[in-house]
Design brief:
alpha/beta, Rossmann fold, five-stranded parallel β-sheet, 9 helices
Length: 211
């Protein structure tokens, strides 16, 4: 097992101490920081996403893996910033106006960061104009919206409409998700994609930014 395999495996099992120490060991062995990120940390998080999607692990396991990912990133961040390593893309996420549920949205954020995206998390009960402003300010390529209540789903349409009014639709892609949300509803309101779970959302965001 290589050091990168060991990092991926430790992340998969949620061992943050091992991920941190093995990341430092990889740097000491002159493994490039970008290679540690891609072939160690992100590869491990991709495995976690697949296991979660298949029902082999559960939310507490994903949270442990996210903490382990952070341990590795804490070691790598100064080097990655010095080397100006760009993220896969920028994604604005939030739970739409009127809805306070955020567990699913938080999980999507964890998985996106684990895949190498920069995530701008607006929290919950987010007004349409805040999504639009955040996309403008950050230069994000994707806006992700979550809803758990059918009564708040119309806010997703308003976000899509306001992005179009701001002449951002097309440049900024939209993805929606949440228990009552369907692919049909995404098509109806003009959203670009429907993510039925966190793993699917990551795959779709990769596709939307061409990665």
């Amino acid at each position: 097992m290589t050091i990168l395999d060991a990092i991926a495996r430790a992340l998969e099992t949620g061992d943050d101490e091992a991920v941190g120490s093995q990341t430092r060991a990889a740097l000491a062995a002159e493994v490039p920081a970008k290679e540690i990120l891609d072939s160690g940390l992100i590869r491990g998080m991709d495995r976690v996403g697949g296991l979660f999607r298949d029902g082999e692990i559960f939310l507490p396991d994903v949270l442990l893996a996210a903490r382990a990912m952070d341990a590795g990133l804490e070691v790598l961040r100064p080097l990655l910033e010095a080397q100006a390593v760009a993220p896969l893309g920028k994604v604005v996420i939030g739970t739409v106006q009127g809805d306070l549920h955020d567990i699913g949205k938080n999980l999507v954020g964890i998985m996106l960061r684990g895949a190498g995206f920069e995530v701008i998390d607006l929290g919950n009960d987010v007004a349409p104009e805040r999504f639009v402003q955040a996309a403008q300010d950050s230069g994000a390529q994707v806006v992700g919206m979550s809803a758990l209540l059918t009564t708040t789903m119309p806010a997703m349409r308003r976000v899509v409409e306001q992005l179009a009014a701001a002449e951002l639709k097309g440049r900024v892609k939209t993805i929606i998700g949440g228990a009552p949300v369907t692919a049909g509803y995404a098509a109806e309101i003009g959203a670009d994609a429907h993510g039925f779970d966190a793993a699917a959302a990551v795959a779709l965001c990769r596709r939307l930014v061409g990665r």
